[in-house]
Amino acid sequence: MNEILQIDSLTNDFFDDVRLLGIVSTAKNYRFCWMMNHYLHFDFRLDKNIDIHIRRKSRNYFFPVYSFYNDNSQLSHYIYHNNCDGEFLLPEFKHIDFLWLMKGDQLKEEDAKNLIITLKEIPSVQLVAELTNEKIKTRGNLVFE
User: What are the pLDDT digits (tens) for 91-120?
Assistant: First the structure.
């Protein structure tokens, strides 16, 4: 029981300063990140130190994470691929292909809205929705050290 409370506390701490977008796209994960870099002038890179490993149904699943650290602020960006061989990082959002997590400095509301509008204009992006903590049942799957 104490271990569960520690995990819940760690998860809550992790999500204190997080904004999360769910994105539906027809692009493969490496192509999707290339498009974010190209159209938004970010510099997302595959971050081997943050890959999420989950064991389900006697199998290991690996969910790649791409990261971008903004030199001008404390805001860090992470893109998770939500699908690995038919398993989902966030099973409650099976229709979502990518999860864009922003952590650190608070993103101004106007900047968040502008990012969503811009994302919707990128080819192969079909849907962008902000995901609130209340909607995410398995948000602990997004936590990394």
Answer: 999 999 999 999 887 778 888 899 999 999
Q: Which amino acid would we find at residue 127?
A: L
Compute the distance between CA of residue 89 and CA of residue 112 in angstroms, rounded to an integer: 23
- DSSP bridge pairs for 19: 102
* Global confidence as pTM: 0.87
Please state the domain extents for the chain. Answer: 2-142
Q: Residue 38: helix, strand or coil by DSSP?
A: helix
Residue closest to 75 by CA, chosen among 85, 83, 67: 67
Provide the CATH topology of domain 2-142: TATA-Binding Protein (3.30.310)
* DSSP letter (8 states) at residue 4: H
CA–CA separation, 143 and 24 (whole Å): 21
